[in-house]
Amino acid sequence: MPIVYDPDNLEAFKLHSIVDFTDKNVLEIGCGNGRLTELYHETTRSVTGIDLKFETLKIAAKDLPESHFAIADSVDLPLRNNCFDIAILAWSL
Amino acid sequence: MVHALKEIWRVLKPDGILIDLRPIRLNVTIDLVHGDEMELISVYSDEWRVAKDKAADDAITTVKSENLFTFQDSAPFEYVKYYDTGQEYIDYEAQRNPPIIHPDDVVQQVKVADDNPGVMIRLGTAMHLTSYRRS
User: Fold this and answer.
1) What is the mean pLDDT of each run of 10 residues along chain B (135 residues)?
2) Which end of chain A has fewer CB atoms at under 10 Å, N or C?
3) Angstrom distance (rounded) from CA B64 to CA A14
4) Which residues in chain B have their CB less than 8 angstroms from residue A93's CB?
């Protein structure tokens, strides 16, 4: 059997308890393969995920085709000012 | 880290929300689980990653002191992983960068699961989940 992660889905429950994603433009920093993105993306207006690893971003882009993914470093975000409602540091600060 | 937080401040709208979600590798618990029973094997701290957490906390303190973000809410929780075998767990930890190498007595104890179907390894890590509002 593969490794079982967070079987009670506490991460998703807690994330939704702390912020309302409905109709929000979300930036996820350190999105990796989109594992966390899958927990909240459905009700958002848009999701932009960035990471430094191309291989994991390819998986995210395949699994979540409606979201946007790009290679980028958090210290130099190739993004306009004032364009996101929520930014998530996903296991990455 | 402070520079990254300032970049996030730049791209967030005023009153936007920053969510800081990360594991705290202090007092990570390793248990053997059989049915409803749990037997604590070890509690360890990953000092390299604990130091990174401290640096992250310091960066947050800096941007709060500069009034870029204000604390909004916190919802800590425990993130749990289950491994079928001790070897699976040891291999997973060893391939991390930097690797986590456990003492021999811990390795021997987690490997009990290898010969006992129905026994699993439970890893429990405290999670930091905090939201901040952008000024």
Assistant:
1) 95 97 91 92 88 92 96 96 91 86 89 86 95 97
2) N
3) 23
4) 1, 4-5, 20, 22, 56, 59-60
